[in-house]
UniProtKB/TrEMBL annotation:
<dbReference type="InterPro" id="IPR014905">
    <property type="entry name" value="HIRAN"/>
</dbReference>
<protein>
    <recommendedName>
        <fullName>HIRAN domain-containing protein</fullName>
    </recommendedName>
</protein>
<keyword id="KW-0378">Hydrolase</keyword>
<keyword id="KW-0479">Metal-binding</keyword>
<dbReference type="Pfam" id="PF08797">
    <property type="entry name" value="HIRAN"/>
</dbReference>
<dbReference type="GO" id="GO:0003676">
    <property type="term" value="F:nucleic acid binding"/>
</dbReference>
<dbReference type="GO" id="GO:0008270">
    <property type="term" value="F:zinc ion binding"/>
</dbReference>
<feature type="domain" description="HIRAN">
    <location>
        <begin position="19"/>
        <end position="85"/>
    </location>
</feature>
<dbReference type="GO" id="GO:0016818">
    <property type="term" value="F:hydrolase activity, acting on acid anhydrides, in phosphorus-containing anhydrides"/>
</dbReference>
Amino acid sequence: MAARVFQKESVITGHHVYKTVWTPVIGEELHTEVEDDNEHDKYAVAVMKSNGIVGHMPRSLSRISWYFLKNGGKIQGKVTGKRRKGNGLEVPCIYYYEGSPRTICKLRRLLS
């Protein structure tokens, strides 16, 4: 069965922690990984560049996204704007969730 994609506008959180190792560029593509050893959030999802973590998905998305990744889904991110103040420094982005049609349908319901 062909994979489906669902997109969600959001932010990359924690840029204030990673600003010395990453300068976001509009259009830049990133990937995500479950961060099992995060002591602050057991459902943390790290936003990654090839050289390491550059931020995290916001908690409002991380728990559902954590389960999605643990069950074989894939999430990519794309920077859509300049950093701004929110809960710390945030970078606007779109997350692209890729998975089976059934999983994407369920994800769409949970995130709407």
